[in-house]
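Friendly challenge for the regulars: who can give me the structure tokens for this chain first? No prize, just bragging rights.
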Amino acid sequence: MSAILSAPWQERIHQFFDAPKPEYLLSTLYSVYFPTGNVNIFDQLPELCKDFVKPGVISKELKNNVNVLNKIKQNLKDYLDGDINKRESNMNNLAELCKKFQSNILKSRDSVQLLGVLITFSFLHLSVLSEKDTNQTAIYGGWANSHGKELADKISEYKIYFIETYPIWQDWRKDQITIKPEPRKKDSGVVLDTITKRSVKVLPTHHTHHTPVNVNSDKFQNVCLKVKNRIYNEINVEFMKLYMHTFALNKFEPGKWYEPPIAPNSKVATVWFGTYGKDTFSKRKDEIRYSEEKYELTNEIGVITGVNIIEFDTIHALTFLFKDQDPNNRKIVGNRNHGHLTTIRGLNEKRYHITAVDLYFNHSVICAIQFFCSGGIKTEILGNRNREAHTVKISCRPGRNENFKLTGVRMASSLTDPQKNNESVGYIELGFEYVRVKDD
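First reply, four minutes later:
Bragging rights claimed.
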């Protein structure tokens, strides 16, 4: 008999939230969390979270709690099989077992690294309490407001925990990326992610075997911090694909199953890409050769209403237009006196926004760019009219099904290599926010 291929974690979670009716919540959850003859969803977490936590942490915690999870699975099955005489005891067992599993995770000394486990479990826990509240007359033979309060309190508890713990995980994860200077050198070293073992050598453009007397060690440290931040941002974007499902906790409130997920605030709802530029990445992904070029990034955040792109062989200039912005204060990065102008207009906060951006780098600057907008609309690849083949493509795509919109842009110009005579957009950071955020 051939093995059954496991559906990915993301696909299972989407199947659960696509349950046709709240009444089918537990049965839908059981089928996607504990499918017959297949890997249960919790056993997928060590692989899913391998870039987010230290090796072995999740596997160890699941092993410690395997008996609790097995009892939850059995009681779920017994409850769904519909033995009326055991309905009440099965539900009481489920509620207590869920409380125990949650408590065990929260008490763990590695609880910050177990965020993915608790997110996955919260949907099971709240489904049980939702069933307990919705069908309490059939289960207990009467109605009591205490069941509804239990559900409401647990929803609030999970929401608060996920909001408060996410930035703690972010700080912890960033600390796992280290900067190690070479022995006896002040201008060279390695940025190492201790979890993924990904490393990037950081070297000056004119590297020698001996450190020059006048070497700028501050420049080296500054470049390393930018490389570290870029690596962290890329990891955080991937983690957001898991974390964003916490925005759906409001769906467990009575009568709100069909409402869309909503993020609690813009801080936890926003992810950044970059900085991308010649001092943070290159064609050789494991080595950066930095120069002494100084630059300062712009910083614009808000509702983007349009974009001006001036391009030919490179992206000579970029301007982002923001809602309620004084036209005289628009930041133009690059040289707007060369190239052809393409404009994007009609972007707004609710219905039409930029969902992804593809960047193409060559000669140490952005040589081409492509914008993707809601509704499947996209621009052509703008720039690189010389059609040079040796470009490096970076896709800034934070989510599935247009779940994020571009709201933040940081940029700086640079001169192309090797001529140093063509000013273009050389450095960029892009911030994407979840499309629905709770109003302050």
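The first strand starts at residue 177 and ends at 181. The radius of gyration is 26 Å. Your move, everyone else.
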